Amino acid sequence: MTSSSPTPPAGPAPLRLARLMWALVLAVLLYGGFALWADLDQLIPALGKVPVSVVLLACALSSVNYAFRFMRWQLYLDHLDIKVPWRPSLQIFLAGLVMSISPGKVGEVLKSALLRRSYQVPIAHSAPVVFAERLTDLLGLFAIGALGVLTFEFGAGIFVGALVAVLALIGALQSERLVHAVIDGVGRLPKVSRLQPQLRQAYASMRTLLSPALLGSTTLLSALSWSLEGLAFWCILDALGAMELTVYKALFVYAISTLLGALSFLPGGLGLTEGSMVGALLLLGLLSASAPALAATYLIRLTTLWFGVGVGALALLSYERRPPSSPGAPDSPFEHGTT
Hints:
Helix 2 (40-48) packs across helix 13 (290-320), helix 6 packs antiparallel against helix 7 (156-174) and helix 10 crosses helix 11 (247-264). By secondary structure, this protein is mainly alpha-helical. The chain is built from 13 helices and no strands. The two termini are 19 Å apart. It has a domain at 39-83 and 134-308. The chain has helices spanning 18-38, 40-48, 52-79, 86-95, 110-119, 123-152, 156-174, 176-187, 196-209, 212-239, 247-264, 272-283, 290-320. Residues 1-15 and 325-339 have low confidence and may be disordered. This is Flippase-like domain-containing protein. InterPro entries: L-PG_synthase/AglD. It is a multi-pass membrane protein.
């Protein structure tokens, strides 16, 4: 180490707003179309039935959901021996929420970019964490919705087909010989062979994250976290006077609708999540008219998806404006073995 002052680490790249703006435009158009379909004169009074306290409670439950998911994030980093102090780790994790409206949430690889910029963690080493998060999100939603599918026979075919596909994917990823053969095959393509080392590194990380014990514990965390948002949905439905309402039914409708939106690979599941949620509420007889069903859908999406995007934007801005490392302090936790 030289005695000169260390060069401050480069900050994360500025957030590209173009895709977010397109997603917002899409949301406005979709929500506007839904509102016209449901009759605006009936929708506004329905929204007014839900007290502000219930909306704030739903946001609080979403925040606890993020706490569980942050625990999962930390668990993954620990298993990959990625050492990051918990405060910047929390900022990085929350910053990823701003990309919740990217297709399949793949934009959350932003977290890997921030880890590389600030802590020199190769993207190939950390990006599998984002994939594992999405995979266990799906498993958690499957766990919540499974009994409901059997009971209500709503979306059973799609549910079973998607579950089989996800389990098949996990099984294929557990086969080191199969994956290495695929990597070798891809490596023969022009301009791709140079990526083989990164692909092998990414797969090594993936195998670690998909070990049975870790997969079980992270799926449990996912089920608990998404159940909290389902509970928020129950609070909103209760305020709207839903008929024959139980927490079980609210969890099922929320899980199956969110699952369909996630599998659609649409930005934030926009359109399909909302449409399937309204349809399920009407089909199960929880609400008898489209206006209150749409009001419930708008409010749960506001307090989950859009609340998360807002939290993520604030976290990213905070992370970008963090003070540089103090003179003499290591820019990376890997230096001097600090944690």
